[in-house]
Task: structure prediction
Amino acid sequence: MADAVHNKVRLTVVTPYKNFIDEDVTSIILPSLDGEIGVMAGHTPLVLALRPGIVTVRTDDEIRHFTVSEGYTEVGTDLVLVICNAAEWPDDVHVRWIKESKDEALKLKEDVLKIEDNEARKYAMTEVDEKLLRVKARTHLISLYGNEHQKQRLEEFELI
Result:
């Protein structure tokens, strides 16, 4: 019988501010630019660009979820390295931050739409789109996996 550790893959998630997670897991689902991808031990090596979204991590004992912002992932046969600008567990997300981020993104969008040069406006809209994707990912994380207080705050701030 195969050793249990051979059915594991090492997940390491780093941000500019901290090492977010570094542990052995049985599977990971990541939000890539081309859609969600599942990774288990022995996966074919590849590099993926990440979009803001929810990561699902399965261990022998539990399933956990967290958000990532834009970044990239390097997948090896026994290691998944995620480098992103931010990663958050549901308990770390304050709904007020989501509301403030959404308001900031919508204000930025108003300003960007006033830019006359089409290329400059198109380039600036990518930042707006990324901010709104982060808002969507955090909102979705809380609506699915947040505590009751967080879910109530989403409703109070009219985020869902």
In short: Residues 92-156 form one domain. The longest strand covers residues 19-25. The chain has two domains: 4-88, 92-156.
